[in-house]
């Protein structure tokens, strides 16, 4: 949450900021163990279809909106290759940031049970009020001023009591269902750190004993309001080996296509491995690095493309379609600032200034996904038309090669609601951990209405039923008018 009660900031700002490092050292990084996508049990869903949900930040507003998406997927029955299933059962992964991380982690832990408990346990509970009450309680003052306990530690305890029941990532590893990645931001570098064993390998730490509540606390640790979650960094001590895609894109002699976001991620990964100079990591709200949880998705698609260009095989070779559902709870309240000569107050400007870069990146992330979709389809169409057949340069053919995968980008945002009055209502909802029951219910209903009105969502359902492969609605006109498969 970005906008909070000023009183909470004043009360809490003076308290200690350190939190207790609770992550254990990992003696040996083994890609065959721990909570990671590669070790998840076979869910029995369609191996040719990968569905990923990206839950944005935004406090309870984001948690309720993303929950509404899960409910709609749960209600949607489809038939894939003659097999009847629910779309929810076909979901392979969920990224969660800040408020969205609560829904993602809770669904990963509880699965179907979530739909009978989540509203009362979290969504329709005054989490913000309970946090403030604990901060104001004299019984917590000594702890809050101590060196090993911070405001996020207090928040994690509350999250444990009301939602996670003491569960750790070892419990999440045992639970069937999609891979969950809650994301926080390393405040020193602005880098993303996801709570998966693959990412914790970078810091040579065992994720299994980390409580889910701490991951949620780190992902939603808004600076000033909540303290950073501090963890130990043991990077460079466990024999960690960079993945094949990292070695490929870093090879100076391989110029097929340097994946930009993948290269940036590689630099961030190497920074985490320097525990000699960085023995501690201070994690804050994941929205500062990526408020949509989209960076890991974009990087994954670039590495899939890079593997194809470099002739490398991977698990993605069997995938025929990738579906990304971007659940963006960004709200843009109307203001009259431009109608008055007097500017907004300093506090209002501060809140707006911290949010604008996040909101701009969120918009650009969705557009980058659409650009990838358009580029892949355009290149495939041109190759089918023989555009590169007479180039006489094998390297050129590899450089323009792309995976034979259909892509779907489903935008679930307030701006896409089919009813203007409801769009206006949603945009006025606050970013906090306290909403009324009516606000929660209307957010859930809005998510379902937006999905049902989405042409891309309807295209997915139709294609799954018919097994067809149609051009994406995000293609440029030149690609749509070209011969298609």
Explain this structure to me?
The protein is of the alpha/beta class and 485 residues long. It has 20 helices and twelve strands. The strands form three sheets. Strands 2, 5, 6, 7, 9, 10, 11 and 12 form an eight-stranded mixed beta sheet that branches. A hairpin with a 2-residue loop joins strand 3 and strand 4.
What's the gist of this structure?
With 485 residues, the chain is α/β, with parallel strands linked by helices. The chain has 20 helices and twelve strands.
According to DSSP, the number of beta strands is 12
Helix content: 40-55%
Instruction: Provide the low-confidence segments as ranges.
Output: 1-19, 350-360, 468-485
Rg, please?
A: 23 Å
- The number of helical elements comes to 20
Q: How is the biggest beta sheet arranged?
A: 8 strands, mixed
Quick check: average pLDDT? Answer: 79
Strand percentage lies at 5-15%
Give the termini distance in whole angstroms: 45 Å
Shape estimate: globular
Structural class: alpha/beta
